[in-house]
Design a protein that fits this description.
Strand order of the largest sheet: 2-1-26-27
Structural class: alpha+beta
CATH class of one domain: Alpha Beta
Strand content: 15-25%
Helix content: 25-40%
Largest sheet: 4 strands, parallel
CATH topology of one domain: Rossmann fold
RNA sequence: GCGAGAGUGGCGGAACUGGCAGACGCGCUGGACUUAGGAUCCAGUGGUAAAACCAUGCGGGUUCGAGUCCCGCCUCUCGCACCA
């Protein structure tokens, strides 16, 4: 017989303990059995599509997932309570390399490994109590998903958006596969950080560049996205306006095309630099006295790995080809160099070199003793070629530039471009940094590319009726990490769909970013089998109203998904171009100053935390410790604080209910819910607190996405309720009924109900349990989000600061309806204010409504 | 180098359009209740002897009033990076 003390130990009654390990599974089962979160399209009901980036089934959920999904669940439940028809699905980005590595290491089939992981992680997510509609679960390695993705590939093929070409590609020697440009970070593989090397390979590409302009223009419509993500996308697309200029070759046919954005400097172009990979390298250097040296140079540079070659501190070097071309403006003959810093991937792979006004060209010219020619002079001082120590890249006045002399270079830009177009020297062009998306992967565990190579017909797409091309399940994984597919005759050998002769199947699989480019549409009709998705369902749910995920996909996944959506639109399959209306990029979970990772040994396992504190506490902590878009420091102490707070809420609600239950008369008044208009005393104080809290929490969640401050508002309310000591107040209420008693009881109930409702999207289990304890009906989540009344929330008395010369010297309370003059006069006669004014004449009195009075003397 | 963001107590973080700097939580200190307290409740907690003064990276400015706006620096984080 132990007494649990409430409010200084006055209540000698056994109070039920808060036991998350009991109540959390309880409510999870109830929600599950009642199908609480499965949704249908309801005509006319306002929808809300809340999506979190689906996980790769790596084995276990980590804290970053838990943070991501806790934010999502909060927002989903909040919208549900606001009356939206909320789609909140979950699935698995299930193809990928780790499954193959596991196959080699543990001798388990990737399909089994993946499925086991999915089963385990699904249980982990269920234990967190997220409001997913599990009926819509999608796994991208399933036959049906693969089928419709291959179908989309073929549609794109028909549209000319898919092509195969031999090109230098990014090869990751550790993953044994090719990577897209977006998947190379600082010259290293995005997944394993191995240095990427260049390989010449024949590869399948998706023509994302055909949408470069549209993707860029669409950026301006992404008003619900973080600005930096939009900027990153814009930079990645990298549009630049310029002009393509023809430099005729001297002593032979043809010309060298260059792309430049600085046509104003063309009169200073006194040599030419071309990339070592440039197709004219061979021809131009033929017959040169140093042909062998040129070969050696080209070979050396092209064999350097990407990271090394593109790093800033690589010295600029080059070699003269022996050939010349003509500067079309000066008509001078200028030498053509091969230079290591010129990129074949950008522009035309050739640049006109203007050493006086481009730092790279300057360094190059200095090294090889090429003379300089200034064509732009700064407005004030006069540059001299022989005194220059660096290139002058600022604005200025044109000199040495024929008929353009004397013009501001910024003004000359267009005039020169026009002149060149008129004289057939060049064409205005737009150039993009964006490259086509290489999707071939030399891997097994991915979606097969549905293509057949026929010795008669060439490249032939698989027939639609033969979809999907299935991965063979009987496979041995070679220990060298290479794909087993090319060595499987049953898979490779097939007959040509066109002529029937024996043919070979494509053995590359698709980049897994293809799956994540349309899964959000698949959720709308996850078992649909007539096409990738049911158009009506997609039109009902899409676009995603709120998308939540890590910043690491700012370019990769988000760009691909935008591209795919545009393709679907052009295929007539959807009506919209942008898939994600609002985007929230959540920060990382940090421990001891570093991102949680196995190698750092600073991982906190969600399972352990849930076991110790319960899912609600973990969720609350992740939402409370930082705003969602900032990095979050994991703190064991902080978690305890959240656990403590939930216990406090629990005792508060149960304490009130105990007091009510022990007094039949209170119970009666308590449930009547009738509020007299002119509330005074307790009820007034309580109602004001309640409505102020509702107001702040609602704004914090809905408008500002500041969940941490929303929680702090609720904490303030709880603290305030504790100082009132409601159980004691209730116990001391008179036996006979009165209007005052009714009002007070109503206000207590309103406060308690509101408190639980405000907490519910953060901590749904304890909220549901307290709701039940408070005698309310299941389910809390059928109840609408509490509204607030501004009149009730309004303070009658306002505390005003009084400043003298901008420094706070006193404060006073005034009635909310006081006039300006009343307030000013009241401030002037304040004793402390008089001392500070000290008989000096008052120059000015500034009044800021509801804030302060400032007296200037 | 370019672009974006940030710099506030011992710590995580508050402060909407300029208007009580440090909400809320952690930690710490004291007290209450206790056989006990690492449970719970109450109080305190930026600095300094101070009711005054000083404090939001540094230096200027605008203003009655600046964490917030402007100018110039410093530092950190992120993205892009020889892009012609």
């Amino acid at each position: 017989m132990r007494s649990v003390c409430l409010y200084g130990g006055t209540v000698e009654e056994q109070t039920r303990q808060y036991e998350p390990s009991f109540i959390e599974p309880k409510w999870q089962n109830i929600w599950d059995q009642k199908g609480k979160y499965s949704v249908k399209e309801v005509c006319g009901k306002k929808k809300y599509y809340l999506l979190e980036m689906f996980p790769y089934p790596s084995g276990r959920i980590h804290m970053g997932h838990v943070r991501n999904y806790s934010i999502g669940d909060l927002m989903a439940r909040f919208r549900m309570m606001q009356g939206y028809n909320v789609l909140h699905p979950m699935g698995w980005d299930a193809f990928g390399l780790p499954a193959e590595n596991a196959a080699i290491k543990h001798n388990v089939h990737p399909a089994k490994w993946t499925q086991d992981n999915i089963d385990y992680m699904r249980e982990q997510l269920k234990r967190m109590g997220y409001s997913y509609d599990w009926d819509r679960e999608v796994s991208t390695c399933s036959g049906i998903y693969a089928k419709w993705e291959q179908w989309l590939f073929l549609k794109m093929y028909e549209k000319g958006l898919v092509y195969k070409k031999e090109a230098p590609v990014n090869w990751c020697p550790s993953c044994n596969t090719v990577l897209a440009n977006e998947q190379v970070e600082n010259g290293c593989c995005w997944r394993c950080e191995t240095e990427v090397v260049a390989e010449q390979l024949s590869q399948w590409f998706l023509k994302i560049t055909a949408y470069a302009e549209d993707l860029l223009a669409g950026c301006d419509t992404l008003t619900g996205w973080p600005e930096r993500v939009v900027t990153m996308q814009k930079n990645w697309i990298g549009k630049s306006h310029g002009i393509e200029i023809d430099f005729p070759l001297a002593d032979r046919e043809g010309c060298l095309k260059v792309f430049t954005t600085r046509q104003d400097t063309i009169y200073g172009a006194i040599f030419m630099s071309i990339a070592p990979e440039h197709p004219l390298v061979e021809e131009l250097s033929r017959g040169s006295s140093q042909e062998t040296q040129i070969r050696a140079f080209v070979k050396r540079v092209t064999s350097q790995d990407k990271k090394f070659r593109s790093s800033e501190d690589v010295i600029k070097e080059g070699i003269f080809t022996g050939a010349y071309c003509i500067n079309p403006m000066t008509k001078n003959s200028i030498p053509i160099f091969i230079a290591n810093f010129v990129l074949m991937e950008y522009g035309t792979g050739a640049v006109m070199a203007v050493p006086t006004h481009d730092q790279r060209d300057f360094e190059f010219a200095k090294k090889y003793g090429i003379p300089l020619r200034i064509v732009i002079q700064p407005p004030d001082n006069c540059l001299k070629e022989e005194e220059m120590t660096q290139a002058y890249t600022e604005e200025g006045v044109m000199v040495n530039s024929g008929s353009f002399n004397g013009l501001k270079n910024t003004d000359a830009m267009n005039q020169i471009a026009d002149y060149m177009e008129e004289h057939g020297i060049g064409r205005k062009t737009v150039n993009y940094r964006l490259r086509d998306w290489g999707i071939s992967r030399q891997r097994y565990w991915g979606n097969p590319i549905p293509i057949i190579y026929c010795p008669e017909c060439g490249v032939v797409p698989v027939d639609y009726k033969d979809l999907p091309v299935r991965l063979p399940m009987e496979v041995d994984f070679p220990p060298d990490g290479k794909s087993p597919l090319p060595n499987l005759p049953d898979f490779v050998n097939c007959s040509c769909p066109r002529c029937g002769s024996s043919a070979k199947r494509e053995t590359d699989t698709m980049d897994t970013f293809v799956e994540s480019s349309w899964y959000f549409e698949r959720y709308a009709s996850p078992s649909w089998d007539k096409s990738p998705f049911d158009r009506d369902a997609v039109e009902y749910w899409m676009p995603v109203d709120q998308y939540i995920g890590g910043i690491e996909h700012a370019v990769l996944h988000l760009l691909y998904a935008r591209f795919f959506t545009r393709v679907l639109k052009d295929l007539g399959m959807v009506s919209f171009a942008e898939p994600f209306k609002n985007l929230l990029t959540q920060g990382m979970v940090i421990k001891d100053g570093a991102k949680m990772s196995k190698s750092k040994g600073n991982i906190v396992d969600p399972d352990d935390m849930v076991k110790r504190y319960g899912a609600d506490t973990v969720r609350l902590f992740l939402l409370f410790a930082a705003p969602p878009d900032k990095d979050l420091d994991w703190s064991d102490k902080g978690v305890e604080g959240c656990s403590r707070f939930l216990n406090r809420c629990w005792r508060l609600v149960l304490g009130i209910m105990n007091a009510i239950k022990s007094r039949p008369d209170l119970k009666k008044g308590f449930s009547m819910a009738e509020m007299p208009a002119d509330a005074e005393g307790l009820s007034k104080r309580l109602r004001q607190l309640t409505h102020q809290t509702i107001r702040k929490v609602t704004i914090d969640i809905e408008d500002r996405l500041h969940f941490n401050t929303a929680i702090s508002r609720v904490m303030e309310m709880v603290n305030e309720l504790y100082t009132i000591d409601l159980p004691k107040v209730l116990a001391g209420m008179p036996a006979e009924d009165s209007m005052q008693k009714k009002a007070d009881l109503f206000a207590v109930r309103e406060a308690m109900r509101s408190l639980i409702l405000l907490l519910s999207p953060f901590v749904p289990h304890i909220a549901e349990e307290m709701w039940e304890e408070a005698g309310e009906e299941f389910s809390l989540f059928d109840h609408t989000w509490p509204g607030f009344d501004l009149d009730i929330a309004q303070d009658e008395d306002i505390l005003l600061m009084i400043q003298v010369n901008g420094k706070i010297r006193s404060r006073m309370t005034v009635k909310a309806d006081s006039t300006d003059d009343e307030i000013k006069n009241a401030a002037m006669i304040d004793i402390r204010v008089r001392e500070w004014i000290n008989e000096r004449p008052v120059k000015k009195v500034i009044l800021v409504k509801n804030r302060l009075v400032n007296i200037v003397v």
